[in-house]
Amino acid sequence: MAKKTAAKKQDIQPLVGKELLKKVKNLSHLSKREKAKECGYEIGGRVNLSSFMSAILEAKGISLDGDTNGDGRGREASYRVKVHKNGQIVLGSTYTEKMGLQVGDEFEIKLGYKHIHLVQITEDDS
């Protein structure tokens, strides 16, 4: 029976995307290593922190590999915006698509010193 349990643990895929970010948020009380382990980034008893951190960055839409949008159309997301003449800042569809956002998704705006932080409001927050 122990062999069957070990085989099942190896079949489990590490969390990625929104599922990973949600799980990490729920595990805020744990260390980085423990979070990685809980999210499936342990192989053969060793925690792969590098893969875990890369997956978090990818889930947040940040690529360290210099990947482009891949379809050859339009501009590549630059992660920079400018304030328009009317005072608005527009986030393009490249970002919303990359994050998997849907029409009607809501965000809380938190202002800091020289930064704006958008926090997605989920059903759990309601």
UniProtKB/TrEMBL annotation:
The keyword DNA-binding applies. This is SpoVT-AbrB domain-containing protein. Residues 78-123 form the SpoVT-AbrB domain. SUPFAM superfamilies: AbrB/MazE/MraZ-like. The lineage of its organism: Bacteria, Bacillati, Cyanobacteriota, Cyanophyceae, Acaryochloridales. Keywords: DNA-binding. GO terms for molecular function: DNA-binding transcription repressor activity; transcription cis-regulatory region binding. The keyword ATP-binding does not apply. Pfam families: AbrB-like. GO terms for cellular component: protein-DNA complex.
